[in-house]
Backbone:
């Protein structure tokens, strides 16, 4: 890392953003979208990687939005340079088609804090929704502690040998919740599991379904344990991780000598309660002291209600060490509200692998 770092910004001061894209039209579109946000005070443009590096080296920015595919120096090369010389919270902006999703997730390994699909009339959302999502992502990125960003060295795993355990009425379950910065935290945790995890793992990640599907496919290539996108009704298998999107909740029931997880879309309609709370409420009811709940990087208040119920039923609540988190708000909140223990990712990995080992 360079000795020069981003200046400390006052919470109420306007954001200064650098938009990097080889298309002048796309730069203008993103600039206009961001300047509609009262929290954004100034937007600069860079039309190629070298210009971006020069601007960041000579000025201070709160957030950088960076195109993935550019001629000459591509977004990944620019990001590596930024994170080594002058770290700035960087939001990758990608078409997210073809192999674009893989390159985008590679960027997360190199320190990008989040990503966003380029505004387009061909998307599932209308332009107004896309614009508001982009503004929201930029505001979130501005809160990130970029000093926690780090390059993750991952080794591809062969698909052979990653066998799930047999379904049954086991008594242990692991639930992992991840918010802003959660991609990087999961990239640190899941590939580090040795494959000896004995309990099923349910992962709630605050990302839309279309992004989650691509992320699970990417993460699976580095994982020693089987990863699955959660279905509407899922028979749980020990040693397998099931991924749920931001608007999905789950409940657990015994059926035919097996545990089933039912997944349904649940719009967030409570100020301090989200899908992860509903997941934990059901899980704590059925698994009691056999439930391990882990909260990774995030910046929402969701999870406190569920975590309190986990502890009331004798379960365990752990959080990622805030100093490791790109967004430490959720772990800090849970340490205060439910006295959750904070552990580094290596210790969290050990806890997951040991959980339920006696029941195998």
Residues:
């Amino acid at each position: 890392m360079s000795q020069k770092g981003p200046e400390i910004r006052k919470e109420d001061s306007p954001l200064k953003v650098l938009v990097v894209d080889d298309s002048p039209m796309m730069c203008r579109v993103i600039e206009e979208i961001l300047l509609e946000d009262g929290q954004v005070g100034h937007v600069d443009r860079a039309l190629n990687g070298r210009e971006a590096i020069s601007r960041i080296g000579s000025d201070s920015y709160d957030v950088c939005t960076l195109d993935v595919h550019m001629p000459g120096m591509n977004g990944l090369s620019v990001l590596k340079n930024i994170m080594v010389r002058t770290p700035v919270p960087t939001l990758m902006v990608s078409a997210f088609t073809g192999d674009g999703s893989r390159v985008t997730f590679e960027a997360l390994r190199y320190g990008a804090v989040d990503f966003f699909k380029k505004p387009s009339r061909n998307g599932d959302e209308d332009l107004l929704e896309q614009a508001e999502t982009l503004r929201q992502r930029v505001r979130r990125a501005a809160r990130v502690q970029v000093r926690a960003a780090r390059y993750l060295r991952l080794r591809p795993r062969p698909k052979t040998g990653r066998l799930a355990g047999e379904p049954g009425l086991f008594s242990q379950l692991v639930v992992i919740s991840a918010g802003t910065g959660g991609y990087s935290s999961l990239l640190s945790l899941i590939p580090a599991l040795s494959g000896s995890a004995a309990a099923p793992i349910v992962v709630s990640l605050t990302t839309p379904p279309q992004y989650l599907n691509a992320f699970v496919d990417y993460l699976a290539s580095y994982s020693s344990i089987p990863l699955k996108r959660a279905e509407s009704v899922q028979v749980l298998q020990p040693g397998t991780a099931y991924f749920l999107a931001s608007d999905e909740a789950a409940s657990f029931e015994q059926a035919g000598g097996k545990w089933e997880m039912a997944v349904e879309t649940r719009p967030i309609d409570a100020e301090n309660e989200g899908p992860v709370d509903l997941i934990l409420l059901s899980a704590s009811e059925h698994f009691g002291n056999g439930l391990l709940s882990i909260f990774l990087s995030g910046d929402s208040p969701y999870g406190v209600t569920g975590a309190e119920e986990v502890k009331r039923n004798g379960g365990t609540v752990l959080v990622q060490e805030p100093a490791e988190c790109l967004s430490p708000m959720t772990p800090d909140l849970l340490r205060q509200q439910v006295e959750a223990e904070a552990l580094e990712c290596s210790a969290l990995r050990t806890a997951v692998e040991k959980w339920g080992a006696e029941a195998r």
In short: The first strand starts at residue 15 and ends at 20. The longest helix spans residues 127-142.
